[in-house]
Amino acid sequence: MKKSIFTIVLAIAYLSIFAAPATDIKNIDYVVTDEGITYVINLRYGIDNNLTAKNDAGEKIIFNLDEVKAYRKNGKEYQCKYFVEEGSQVVRKTFLQKIYTRAGYSVYKREKRMNENTNIEDYYVYNNETQEYQFNKNNYKVILSFFFPKFNLLYS
Prior knowledge:
Blueprint: H1 2-17, E1 29-33, E2 36-45, E3 51-54, E4 60-63, E5 68-73, E6 76-84, E7 91-102, E8 105-110, E9 123-127, E10 130-135, H2 141-147, H3 152-155
Antiparallel strand pairs: 1-2, 1-5, 2-3, 3-4, 5-6, 6-7, 7-8, 8-9, 9-10
């Protein structure tokens, strides 16, 4: 009896090696447009600054950035947002990486794109679709104390 149970356990362990790994839902890339959500593979920026990907069948799909509302690439979520740069009155539209959400406020990080020359490390706080605050490495302590209260001990 012990030998048969040991043999069954050994067979199950051996067969589990060949089982396909489970797909983590947080790592599935997708693109959101007016037409709906499209799940894709190998999402990247194309040469003409469009999103390029492949679908499950292996067909190449090109998304115009003007039509894209949001997308997820390598587990990071990006949303199309309007923002005002600090020190200017110019309203710009770009994709911001969603970092954290608490009490209706969301923190987004702006990343450098291909056509931008400056080193950008700006962060923006939005409440519903309204930009509330902009911060960077120089004035981040106030924002961290709201979103991560346990860090108050580090800065006091």
